[in-house]
Specification:
With 269 residues, the protein is an alpha+beta fold. The chain has helices spanning 2-12, 96-103, 106-125, 130-133, 141-153, 171-224, 227-244, 257-263, and strands at 16-19, 23-29, 32-35, 41-44, 49-54, 58-60, 69-74, 80-90, 158-168. The strands form three sheets. Strands 6, 7, 8 and 9 form a four-stranded antiparallel beta sheet that branches. A three-stranded antiparallel beta sheet has the order 3-2-5, with helices on one face.
Length: 269
C-alpha cells in the first residue's frame, strides 16, 4: 500500500507548481490564460504551464561572476569609447501581465531588456562629447543613460539604477586630451597672471594720477598765495637745521666758530 501511495504522489508532483511570494506567475493551458496571477504556495496545474517573473530587483548582466558589461558607443565627436555598465531593474506589478501578453515568455522579456539597455547606452553616449564625458558633467552621465534606457524599454520594467564606470578612449585621443588639458591649465595660469598684472598696472596709473592731481592743486595754491612758497622753504630749512644740530651740544645759527666757543664758556687754547 505504501508503494501505491508513493507512486500516486510521484504522479501528482509533475502536475503541481510552487509559486514563491516574490514571483508573479501566469497560468496558461494550450496558450489560453487560466489565471492572470497564481496564488502563492503549491498550485495544482495539470496540463497547464506557469510563466513566472521575479518581482525583486534584478541585475544586468545576470551572468555569474560578472558585475558589469563592457560596451562600446560612439560619442557626438564622433569617437568610439568603451565603458563598463551595470543596471538594476525590476518588473512593475501594474504592468507585468501586459508584458506577459506581449512576450509570453520570461526569457523573451529578459532579451528585450538586455537589448534596451545596450541601445539606450549607445543613444545616451551619442549626445555627449569626449570633453563632456571627462568634465564635471560626468556625474550626470549615468542619469542620461538611465533616461534613454527607460525610454527604450517603456513599461516593460523599471530601471532603478545605472552605473557607468571606467570609460576608455583610444590611446591617441587620450594623449591629445591630456595635452589639451595641460594647455588649458597653462592658459588659465596666463589669464590669472594677466589679471594680476592689469590690477598692478591700474594701481600704478591711479598713483600717478593722484600725484599729478596733488601737484596741480599745489600749483594752484602757490598761485593763489605766493607766501606758501616762503613758508614751505622756512619749514624745510628748519628741518635741515634740526637734523644738523641733532648730535651737537651747542648749535649757533648765523655765527662763527668763535661764537660757538664763547657760547660754550671756553676759550681757544
Amino acid at each position: 500500500m505504501r508503494k501505491g501511495l508513493t507512486a500516486a504522489l510521484l504522479m501528482l508532483v509533475p502536475g503541481c507548481t510552487i509559486v514563491d511570494q516574490t514571483e508573479h506567475c501566469v497560468l496558461t493551458r494550450y496558450g489560453r490564460v487560466i489565471e492572470q496571477q497564481m496564488s502563492q504556495g503549491l498550485n495544482w496545474t495539470p496540463f497547464s504551464s506557469a510563466t513566472c517573473f521575479s518581482m525583486t530587483e534584478q541585475n544586468f548582466p545576470q551572468d555569474p561572476g560578472r558585475d558589469s558589461e563592457t560596451m562600446e558607443a560612439q560619442t557626438r565627436d564622433p569617437v568610439t569609447v568603451t565603458g563598463d555598465v551595470s543596471v538594476v531593474f525590476a518588473y512593475d506589478p501594474a504592468t507585468i501581465y501586459e508584458v506577459f501578453l506581449e512576450k509570453r515568455s520570461a526569457t523573451a522579456v529578459e532579451v528585450e531588456i538586455r537589448n534596451a539597455i545596450r541601445e539606450g547606452y549607445r543613444n545616451a553616449l551619442a549626445g555627449w562629447t569626449v570633453t563632456e564625458i571627462f568634465s564635471p558633467r560626468r556625474a550626470n552621465l549615468a542619469d542620461s543613460v538611465q533616461t534613454h534606457i527607460q525610454a527604450k524599454l517603456g513599461n516593460r520594467a523599471r530601471i532603478e539604477r545605472v552605473f557607468v564606470r571606467d570609460i576608455r578612449i583610444p590611446q591617441v585621443i587620450e594623449q591629445a586630451r591630456i595635452e589639451a588639458a595641460r594647455q588649458e591649465q597653462v592658459l588659465a595660469q596666463a589669464r590669472q597672471q594677466l589679471v594680476i598684472d592689469s590690477v598692478n598696472a591700474e594701481a600704478v596709473v591711479m598713483r600717478e594720477r593722484g600725484s599729478a592731481e596733488a601737484r596741480r592743486l599745489r600749483a594752484q595754491s602757490y598761485a593763489a598765495n605766493p607766501a606758501l612758497i616762503q613758508l614751505e622753504q622756512t619749514e624745510a630749512w628748519s628741518r635741515g637745521v634740526a637734523e644738523a644740530c641733532r648730535q651737537a651740544q651747542t648749535c649757533v645759527l648765523g655765527g662763527s666758530i668763535m661764537d660757538a666757543f664763547s657760547a660754550g664758556g671756553g676759550r681757544p687754547r
